[in-house]
Task: inverse folding
């Protein structure tokens, strides 16, 4: 069935497409642009999936497609019939399976911050962000020295208002002293996560979704699982301080970077949170 459909497509649509290109030279340019856009979108899709747990699942689906095609060539009719029947519902199955990844990708596409970066509208905002990054790092180091558990979620393009609403609204300026005080044991706000949004402490004592992946190390506590969980559902960057070991970690894109030093912590936060305008980057290169 798949082989026949592909053959019909090739004989009609594809050949007609080639004829249009050869007959009208202007179509060559549009075709090249079309192909470049498609290649770029495929590359971004694969890059996004490779950083998530869906990558292994995608490889399994590709293997099934290959087996389906091979079974058709080898006339393995029963196997081919079963696999082609499953393929009929493939689109619906993909939407269900990849729902978190699709949602995250569409949310990133819908944000306006990417356009403002290109226009160089974020310079003043970046100065404020860098100041706050150093304040967060100072607080994390102090909490690590005292072996006080902490969970700080820094919102990026994808808004997490639903998570903010689970905690105590603060809307406060960021300061190392306040962050350390929030995570003081046996205080009302220490249990849960602090959410940093729009360069302010939006809320404290927030509840995060826990990661349930079987490949997560068993020694990781609830804070680390919560950090990985929210990093899979959004593009937030999360700073975690272990109460047991006093070690600092960073979660982003569904992965955990464990046991980072202060300088590494600052570098990772700056790399992922600072939106450096294109023209500024060029000026810096020229100065060098």
Result:
């Amino acid at each position: 069935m798949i082989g026949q459909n592909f053959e019909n497509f090739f004989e009609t649509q594809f050949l007609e497409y080639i004829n249009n290109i050869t007959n009208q030279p202007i179509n060559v340019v549009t075709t090249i642009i079309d192909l470049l856009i498609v290649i770029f979108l495929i590359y971004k899709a694969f890059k996004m999936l490779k950083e998530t747990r869906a990558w292994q699942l995608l490889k399994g689906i590709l293997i099934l497609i290959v087996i389906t095609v091979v079974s058709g060539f080898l006339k393995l009719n029963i196997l081919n019939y079963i696999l082609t029947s499953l393929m009929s519902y493939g689109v619906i199955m993909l939407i269900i399976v990849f729902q978190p990844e699709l949602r995250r990708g569409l949310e990133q596409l819908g944000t306006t911050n990417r356009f403002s970066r290109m226009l160089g509208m974020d310079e003043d905002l970046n100065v404020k962000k860098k100041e706050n990054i150093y304040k967060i790092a100072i607080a994390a180091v102090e909490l690590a020295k005292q072996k006080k558990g902490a969970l700080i979620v820094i919102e990026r393009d994808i808004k997490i208002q639903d998570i903010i609403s689970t905690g105590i609204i603060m809307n406060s300026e960021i300061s190392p002293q306040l962050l350390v005080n929030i995570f003081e044991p046996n205080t009302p706000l220490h249990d849960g996560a602090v959410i940093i949004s729009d360069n302010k402490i939006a809320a404290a004592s927030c509840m995060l979704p826990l990661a349930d992946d079987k490949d997560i190390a068993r020694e990781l506590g609830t804070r680390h699982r919560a950090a990985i969980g929210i990093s899979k559902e959004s593009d937030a960057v999360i700073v975690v301080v272990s109460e047991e070991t006093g070690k600092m970690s960073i979660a982003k894109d569904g992965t955990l970077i464990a046991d980072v030093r202060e300088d590494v912590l600052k570098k990772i936060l700056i790399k992922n949170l600072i939106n450096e305008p294109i023209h500024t980057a060029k000026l810096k290169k020229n100065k060098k």
